Amino acid sequence: MNALPNPLAQRAVRQDGALAAPVSGGDQLARRLARRYRDRITGAFVLPRREGDYAPLPADMPAPLMEALRARGVDRLYAHQAQAWQATAAGEHVVVATPTASGKSLCYTLPVISAAIQQQAKALFLFPTKALAQDQVAELLELNQAGSLGVKAFTFDGDTPGDARQAIRLHGDIVVSNPDMLHQAILPHHTKWAQFFENLRFVVIDEVHTYRGVFGSHVANVLRRLQRVCAFYGVSPQFILCSATIGNPAQHASALIEQPVTAITESGAPVGEKHVLLWNPPVVNPDLGLRASARSQSNRIARTAIRAGLKTLVFAQSRLMVEVLTKYLKDVFDSDPRKPARIRAYRGGYLPTERRAAEREMRAGQVDGIVSTSALELGVDIGALDVVVLNGYPGSVAATWQRFGRAGRRQQASLGVLVASSDPLDQYFVRHPEFFQGASPEHARIAPDQPLILLDHIRCAAFELPFHDGERFGPQDATPWLQVLAEEGVLHQEGARFEWIADSYPANAVSLRSVADGNFVVVDRTQGRQTIVAEVDFSAAALTLYEGAIHMIQSVPYQVERLDWTGRKAFVTHTNVDYYTDAIDYTRLKVLEAFDHSPAGAGSAHHGEVHVARRVAGYKKIRYYTHENIGYGPVNLPDLELHTTAVWWQLPQRALEQAFDHRQQALDGFLAAAHALHIVATVAVMAEARDLQKAVGSGDGAWFATPDLNGRAQIRSSLGELDASAHGPFIPTLYLYDAFPGGVGLSAPLFERREDLVRLARELVQRCDCRAGCPACVGPVLAADEQNDTPLKVLATRVLDLVVAL
Amino acid sequence: MSALADKLRGLRRQAGVTPTPPRRAEPLPGGLSQLLAVRQRKPVSMARSAVPQVLPGHTIAPGLQLSETSGIWPPAPAAFDASFARVGEVVAPERLLLFDTETTGLAGGTGTRAFMIGVADWHHGQFRERQLLITTLAAEAAMLDCFASWLRPDTVLVSYNGKSYDAPLLKTRFRLHQRACPLHGLAHIDLLHPVRRRWRGVWENCRLATVERQLLHVVREDDLPGSEAPAAWLGFLRGGSAAPLHRVARHNSQDLRSLGGILGHFTRESAA
């Protein structure tokens, strides 16, 4: 819609000059922005327009389905949809990893509906969110209606009323649910679903790239339980999985279902030209390396785009930021309350009806600008858009592409802009356009045999069906685990069978999002509230929930007022301080067993089991932007210990003596290199930064090094005392370890990709714009230190050069 | 204790799971302390010989006990119109089969089982009770088959809360043993509902114990609370005494007789 000239808009036209003139598409806007803001753009590239690759509707498709498709205007398929049809017809398990908006859902709806029509076959769909599930059902119903196919699809989730459940179990051809419901409601009551299971032919799992790490490891076990229950009913359903573009879709899908999977990765969907800009806010204080906020930049880009007549979507990282950006844009575009709003916010926390209304308006093209959280990222249909602006890096390349995929029309070029925040990961990505151009650097990883997770699911599985001696659960012989459960008294062994005997419902005690159940809850006490606002893993609690800590929840700062360690509760209030807190923690690692090792340059790389002892001794208050240290606080919490897996690098004393003037220098280099390696490793395994930790010490656990107040290494021989002179041989070791008891499988893939990691870490340090070091490369450096002859960046590079493969 | 168990215990401690407190640290409620005491014993082989293991009833299949008794109370009702229980037909007393199960708990789902099925009917003018009790898990299938053999296509089931509890639970057990559920399609008078319609808000609650006291003036003697039945059976299964099983059987038997008494009350009312 074209509003009448609005005085505010006109003033902005004058400000932005020629930029605001209407443009015909994202390409023109991209060129203008690139000309005007050359120094802010760190990467600009174009994905060319591509014609569709089509295939006729398969001849073996049931006629009513074909008619339904034609009635909906589909008279041919994209090549990848036809490929999926053939592969499923051949009985193969399939993973479809094609870009957003390439028509992935037809890849599974066609085989599922045709089996429902022809053989009364049933299907189970698993989606990570309720909103996605509802959209999917709406789509199925439309297709069903178009052809009067008589296929019944229902959502089954926590909101499904009790009296509807029975009907869904008996009459649903397609049941759309989520992994948590499968885990807690369906499998433990499988006998009620007997008819459904007896006819279950397809299991569809969408967004499998989100099932990684702890959550993915749990989901893989839920799928083991599902397949075990299916075997009881005499069926072995076919799996159709969908993923965003990641580096290892087939390997990941196959790890989830533990069966060979055919991967379909080439999309046949036509795409319009797509421009991508990587945008780093300008440096506003060169001395401190301070940049303008991402928010100011996103606001500017969105304003320019909307004014140029392009439908624009801005993704923000938090609900609060959605409201802030919406307000800024509304101030410009919605100043006249008599006119329909041109700008809308979309986020979780709105009522479903409000969200549906927003979606309808967007589809109808009545809205010019949308500001959203990730709530819009997955699947929700809002029609075509021209420009997507990401206010901050969304945490993975896969998610970046999913969000960019929101923009795109067939006939017109679209534009995606990634605006980096000051976060180290943002700064890393904005300087590496190649991550968005070549093969994805991200690999989704799971560790389904993580001991605590495995025990939890064998417990749940035993509740569902008795185990017999020697039965396998995944690749594991379950017997020793069953014996542990029998010792606990929840199972009873009789002859060759282990049967559930306890009066409890184990699935209720197992959360798919944590390892074991020692989690802390975070209770908001702001203004008399007493509500739970977050949950924190036990292993992260000491580092993030000490009294005085500033704890960020969805980018909103809370201060911890009281920590009830034994009650596993942290009481917080909302705060507006200008600093964040950083735990001063002493971590000592000791290698217990090396599984594997290899030479790495002048040194060696290893993978194995370690013992970690950790004490949080206090915390620093650090001012935002300037990273000034403005104070300290004490912390008095029990020491933590952890048996986990790690990857580590070591250099022999001789190599160090040649490269460094003295030990202090070498240790400074190790700590700095650890910072850089940690950043690149987090990306490589798609981990949260806190799930993977770094440390520097000696291999035998005799001493460890921590940065002092100036970022320089200090040696300690035990948790607590300072010990300037380490005794014994000097073999500094750089560790990256899994922050969960028993590990969640992050370190093995890191060992596999060790050479890549060192190379990437070197590039990270070398390409960083800072002079001596900054949080985005080797860690914060004090201003006084910038004049040092051998800055941390140089020392880090020396260490990395020594361990790089020759 | 196995090495795996030790390892898992260590990892759980590191994950912040509070270890279970040492047993017997403080006095526990009766049933629980009994259960824990039994758990501390070594499983299998021991204890059985030391304790006289006289089980209720006689063995009809490996691990399956059947006790059968007859009495004159409660008396058989005349043929009655069952519409008070929303079963729209006139029911002859010989079609009635009263049932009540004792289970391993209330958690629900596939992990809860019945270890005792008590059934009663009016047979040759007397109130006949038959109780099936399993003493091994493997005997469950035989118990289910025996129970199924007592049902006829025209059987009218009578229970207290059986529609939502006992019947679905048995249905799950039949399903897990890959057997058709014999309860399917049978008429079922669940007395909880007419009782509720009648006395909700009049008595403090509508539990069976309350109803039998108020309506039938039954006083139970040395009754084992229903909630302690799981522990009694589990204790026996793990090598403990069989004595508590007799108390469970008496409790179940009283439930059946009260069921008959309450049914009689409604049938007389509907005849009047």
Automatic annotation (TrEMBL), chain A:
UniProt-listed Enzyme Commission number(s): 3.6.4.-
UniProt-listed InterPro entries: DEAD/DEAH_box_helicase_dom, Helicase_ATP-bd, Helicase_C-like, HRQ1_WHD, MZB, P-loop_NTPase
A single MF term (Gene Ontology): hydrolase activity
Uppermost EC category: hydrolase
Helicase C-terminal domain sequence ranges: 300-452
Keyword check for ATP-binding: yes
Residues of the Helicase ATP-binding domain: 85-264
UniProt keywords, alphabetically: ATP-binding, Helicase, Hydrolase, Nucleotide-binding
PANTHER family: ATP-DEPENDENT HELICASE HRQ1
Protein name: DEAD/DEAH box helicase
Taxonomy of the source species: Bacteria, Pseudomonadati, Pseudomonadota, Gammaproteobacteria, Lysobacterales
Automatic annotation (TrEMBL), chain B:
Occurrences of domain YprB ribonuclease H-like (ranges): 98-262
Region annotated Disordered, chain positions: 1-29
Protein name: Ribonuclease H-like domain-containing protein
Organism this protein belongs to: Dyella halodurans
